[in-house]
Design a protein that fits this description.
Elements (H helix, E strand, L loop, with lengths): L1 E3 L2 E3 L15 H10 L12 H7 L4 E3 L2 E3 L1
Antiparallel strand pairs: 1-2, 3-4
Length: about 70
């Protein structure tokens, strides 16, 4: 869920104007650590692959969006 313009939106929707660079990867890694996932053990997937595999990114018209 997130709050958009005073409305709480509960359905998944991609923000097509956003790209991988718009995501704070440090915050994402800290979130994963709070879930008990090891983000330091090698090998780790690349940022785009990791975000896509965890449902943070979606593919839209051949590019990754959040």
């Amino acid at each position: 869920m997130y709050n958009a313009f005073g409305f709480v939106v509960t359905e998944e929707q991609a923000i097509t104007a956003a790209e991988v660079g718009d995501i704070d990867l440090d915050s994402f890694r800290k979130y994963l650590q709070r879930l008990g996932l090891d983000t330091d053990e090698e090998p780790q997937p690349g940022a785009s692959d990791d975000l896509f595999n965890r449902g943070v990114l979606t593919e839209h018209d051949g590019s990754m969006n959040r």
